Amino acid sequence: MNLMYGTTYIAGPFFNEVQNERITLMENLCKKYKVRYHSPRDFMKLASNATQEEMIKVFKSNCQQILKSTLIIALIDDPDTGTNWEMGYAYGKEKPVLMVSFKNKKVNVMLVQGAIGFTQNLEQIELFLRGKNYGYAYADIHGVAYDFNLEVAQQWKKAKETEIY
Hints:
By secondary structure, the protein is of the alpha/beta class. The protein contains 6 helices and 7 strands. Strands 2-1-3-4-5 form a 5-stranded parallel sheet, sandwiched between helices. α3 links the parallel β3 (71-75) and β4. It is globular and about 45 Å long. The protein starts with 7 loop residues before the first strand and ends in a 5-residue tail after the last helix.
């Protein structure tokens, strides 16, 4: 079992069936490895005719959830300005970001450099979530412990740096 405190924030678009399937997959993997998570699609439901007040409420809630999180997992297969913004905000708030893709794609240098790692298949994601299982090896800036495979994520990042544009 992955012994972890804190919450993982799952960032990613959920505007179509495939995107929702990816979010559901991440949620299910978090459940499998006993990783608490917060999924924005649980609270970010805005109608196309949403009021300014509703939009501000969602924005503030989103920011609060990122701040409360120990880790941000960003699903980046489909271009999404909201996910990119969440990644930048998390980086600015010194929250580790793990980029997740199921496609072999090039990624923007700014996103790569702002992340702790970049996974490209289900096995890598599971390896990361499974953690080292020997205790709390790391803590975020607030002292919240987590036990992910950060060294592995950083190795993936180094391998991907040759493919950035």
